[in-house]
Amino acid sequence: MTAVRATIPSDTHDAGSWILAEALGVSKRHVRRLHEQLGPLGASRKRGSAYILRADHPDVARRLAIASRDTSYADLSGFTTKQVEEARKWLRIVKIGRVEIARSLAGGMNRSDAVEAFCATQGVSAATYRRRDKALSRSRGRHLISQIDGRGNRAHASGDGTEAARSPEAWDWFLSLYLDENKLSVTLCHDMTAERARACGWAWPSLRTVQRWSRAIPQVSKVRYREGKAAFESKCMPRMQRTYEHVASGEHWCADESTLDLYARAPDGRGGWKRVRPKLTAWLDIRSRLFVGWHISHRANSDTIVAAFKAGVARYGPPVQVTCDNGEDYKSVAGRSRKWANFDQARLQSIYGELGIAPHWAIPYEPWAKIIESHFRAVHNRFDKLFNSYCGNKPENRPAGVERIGVMALPTVDEIAAQFEQWLHAHHQ
User: Which has the closest alpha carbon to 11: 59, 39, 45?
Assistant: First the structure.
């Protein structure tokens, strides 16, 4: 806190070295004692009800340094963001008020009127200001915490801090349990920590207090340590912003596979039928966002990739470059793998190479690297849900009774493909 210079009567020649006693942040009783000690030495004077001290006196300078020390940001993990912001506002009001009220007192105004006048300019009540001012005087350097509304959090409100409510070792033990991919609940972690605290003699508060503290743990930390690295990169890491204004339509395609969220039937190879979830293999033009080529089958492999690619080339011509999934199916089409033994020589020499297409491969296990993923979501939400055999993408999203639909009552994979072609035409429009 910057000390505010007081206006000293003209009989004082070194006026610049004097400050208002309010700048020390101590109680009025303490100020009176200082005046009794420093007055005879010429280092303290009284003007009305205000006290003015020499800033260059060693005792005053030491106390001023203590008052200016920033200890406002002690452990705040037990408070919400709203509580901390409200405390910052009141700390600023009280510190400004002390200086302004002291100026009014030096001008001859009585304290009650000075407080009322200042509170009117700030739009706050005088009673609340007095209570906040008293809390700051008793804060013992913990200025910000003294202004927090501590209802329901007595250790902080009293100025004792979290150290009186929990031991650092206990909190570290709790975090080691809670920030783990086993995803233990706050209640279980609290109980396990309480048992450890009793054995080690640590201070540990109630469950409700710990629940409040746990809400203040940064969300990024919870995602990273409770959900894993993949979830952290997916939900919390910033994304590179890509623009496609420089790409012409038909120049760059992106491919991937997706399992449709519905049941269909396909031949089982023994003269009968089996229940399957059809797989969509598609190529998307990244500029126009059109599905330029696609194929639906009861399985997805390098053959379906080639079939979808062939349909797109036959309709629109070959692209200049493609971005593919990093799976073995796509690698084999590009000649990067010999996983499939039944490929002919032309395929092994790379279809992309023969057509002069530059292939790119997406980063493994990062679905956001392929723009086609968001368009598959449109297929699942706008196409799959039109069928009575819709089964959802998770067990909890599965409609009741869909498993009881007989195999022969399900549409065939070919019927699904025919309806997808009609839907896709309307979707593109």
Answer: 45
Instruction: State the residue for tokens 């390098």.
Output: 302
Let me know if 101 is exposed, middle or buried by CB neighbors in 10 A (0-12, 13-18, 19+). buried
- Nearest 5°: the CA angle 361, 365, 370 is 50
Cβ atoms of 145 and 139 within 8 Å: the answer is yes
Q: Model confidence over 20-43: pLDDT tens digits?
A: 777 776 777 778 888 888 888 888
Query: Are residues 54 and 130 in contact, defined by beta-carbon separation less than 8 angstroms?
Result: no
First-to-last alpha carbon distance for the chain, in angstroms, is: 65
Return the amino acid letter for 309: F
Report how far residue 353's alpha carbon sits from residue 333's, in angstroms, rounded to the nearest whole number: 10
- Whole-structure pTM value: 0.49
What would the pLDDT profile of 125-157 be if each residue is shown by its tens digit?
999 999 888 888 877 667 777 777 765 444 444
Contact (CB, 8 A) for 189 and 177: yes
Measured distance CA(273)–CA(287) in Å, rounded: 40
d(CA 318, CA 330): 17
Per DSSP, the three-state class of 333 is helix
User: How would you classify residue 294: left for phi > 0, otherwise alpha for psi between -120 and 50, otherwise beta?
Assistant: beta
Amino acid at site 324: C
Q: Say if CB 391 and CB 263 are below 8 A apart.
A: yes
The amino acid at 48: G
HEC-encoded secondary structure of 208-254: HHHHHHHHCCCHHHHHHHHHCHHHHHHHCCCCCCCCCCCCCCCCEEE
Q: What is the 3-state secondary structure (H, E, C) of 29-88?
A: HHHHHHHHHHHHHCCEEEECCEEEEECCCHHHHHHHHHHHCCCCCCCCCCCCHHHHHHHH
Distance CA(314)–CA(306), nearest Å, equals 12
CA 195 to chain CA centroid, nearest Å:
32
Q: Which of 21, 40, 1, 30 is nearest to 105 (CA)?
A: 21
Nearest to 128 by CA among 142, 113, 144, 149: 149
